[in-house]
Write the structure tokens for this entry.
Amino acid sequence: MFELLSENLDDFTAGLWVTTRLVVASFVVALVLGTLAAALRVAPSKWLNRAGAVYVEVFRDTPLLVLLFISYPGLRRSGVEIGAWTAGIAALGVYTSAYVAEVLRSGVFAVAKGQGEAGLSLGFTQGDVLRRIVLPQAARTVIGPLGSITIAMIKNSAIVGASIVALPDLLKEARIVNSNTFQTEESFFWAAVGYLLLTVTVTVFFRGLETRYAVRR
């Protein structure tokens, strides 16, 4: 088992690095789009609320694999030149953004309503209240759930490598090692160890953020 790792360490390391880059880039996309969708969900306008709700429901209820097929072969057949990296990051980011939006929305509702009203009475606009008063506090209340979403994203990233997008991530490299060595259990065991390293790292990181910034109730 350790012999397999030592002989293919470069392949596993390369796959782990690809998975890390994929998750980080997709998380940035998810955080940006999720914040915008959450802002729509809590906006005073009913039409904006409905637009945010449609966005969340569409991308939360659509399987990630379907989004990958749409974002890569689907767009390419429509004449849109899109690379595998862009398609993988976009699909995983958009899919996860729906969950981020709902987490942030719950965080917004956890902030006392009187704080927003106080901001409006001081002359802030609705957008200023949301940006300067509500969202900073909401972010502190959702650190734990965002950590859980990130862990789920790490595991979902394996679908990107296993799909038609076929990025050379950790799972893809494990499959290649398996096809070359026919040591199935050992190959995927070390892939699992790689994913475990990423999820444990994320867990420790977000627990540290919780300890420092989370709102105590």
The chain has one domain: 2-213.
